[in-house]
Amino acid sequence: MPKLTLVLERRALKVYDLNATVVRIGREADMDVVIDNVAVSRRQAEIRLEGAGWVLRDLGSGNGTFLNGRRVDDAAPIRPGDEIAFGKFSLFFDHVPVAPVAAAPASVGAAGRQSDGTLLLNPQELAELQKAMTQKRQAQIRWTAGDRGGTHYLTEAATLVGRTDLCDLRVPTGPRQHILISRHGARFEVRNLSSWYRMRVNGEAVARAALQTGDRVDIGGLQLTFLDEIH
What we know:
Elements: E1 3-8, E2 11-17, E3 22-26, E4 33-34, E5 45-50, E6 53-58, E7 66-67, E8 70-71, E9 76-78, E10 83-86, E11 89-93, H1 123-136, E12 140-145, E13 148-153, E14 158-162, E15 169-170, E16 177-184, E17 187-192, E18 200-201, E19 204-205, E20 208-211, E21 216-219, E22 222-227
Parallel strand pairs: 3-4, 14-15
Antiparallel strand pairs: 1-2, 1-11, 3-5, 5-6, 6-9, 7-8, 7-10, 10-11, 12-13, 12-22, 14-16, 16-17, 17-20, 18-19, 18-21, 21-22
């Protein structure tokens, strides 16, 4: 049985089984997938089984429905792994990109609670919102050093972390060049470049290590948490 996974940024909120031939999505309480958000229309979209495949249709929504980044104007076939997006929310078809949280927040699927109207976004606002949501699902490291910290997105094949201007991520403490995070296909690896500081990954002293989401890297007063991409 195919599934729909509702995702907000990096969190899977709920997984729905497609146990009917038509699944309606929107803000109204009687929708099959209820998303109580003002940027989502009361009747946003539907997914319908036609023949041997599933088809997505927009139901005249105010801000549009997007399939893999493209706005849906007519009926569009969907396949496992496809992303259906509206505002900040996405539905992944027959794919669970991240483990769902224990319970969905009240703002999702909350029967009986509706906004007065749909908040319409202009094309630039829609594009910026989609760009922000896409970025937040990219592979990233969240770092802290003393009272400073931030998030760095791993968009390049290699990311150099250290104190010098040559580094992709400059940090206020530690050696000139701390570590190198490199990407090999869908995998990431961290390597210690310092001859003075010992690097630990999840508490274990190593010179290099493959990274998995949630791994913590400590070196020279710097703490990094790696989060893999969601797709």
